[in-house]
User: Fold this.
Amino acid sequence: MAVISKNMLRTLLDGDVPLVAVSFGDSDNERLAQEAKDAGVDIAELRIDGFSRTDQDHVLAQVRAFASMPVLATVRSAYEGGDWKGTEQERLALFRAIAPHVHAVDIELSSREILAEVVAAAHEHDTVALISYHNFDLTPSSEELEAVIADAKEAGADIVKLSTMATSADDVKRLAALLLAAGDDVPLIVIAMGAEGCASRVFFPVLGSRITYSFFGTSFAPGQLAFAETSGLLRTFHPGFDRRMTARRRTA
Assistant:
């Protein structure tokens, strides 16, 4: 399988137009990859932790199905809501095997046993190291979240993802303020999960959150919107996103 020679996702992340990722398992991906490309999906997030098989040959076959678009490989730990059932050393071996063939990998800040080695494997191949933090119970204080961002930057993150459960409008406002106050050195993805935070999936990208997550068919997280709805709303509220989608339709 060919190694990626130029990381197209880095170019997209350097722009100021939000990106929409759709999460996929390992069912019927040949068809879904074409559907995603035709629909204008920016990033295919492969949720490898939920695959029916996680041997390297099977995983790389799923990566090949999405060869025409940026791929983000996620092997989410059970500690942060994922379905990974193997050991950390097995997860590390999988990350090392796929790092040369994908555009980004997502590793949790809490995965201290393998975090440094996953980031190193990503950077060895110019793969984007996305370091993530998820809290499915609540939205921590601004001080705690700022500490998470600082820790992720220190660990070598190319982009930091914060996804927390919003139980009130104040939680959403606190996350929005954090996003607006962030510096430009490392891009952020900020998401408020749940019904209270649903609007964040459209309006936080307008405020600078670099990637919003959506789905075809089945949601992977509380409060996610389907791709068609997400992209339709972003076209309404972000002129740059609308122009990009229009240009893609003209060249399709």
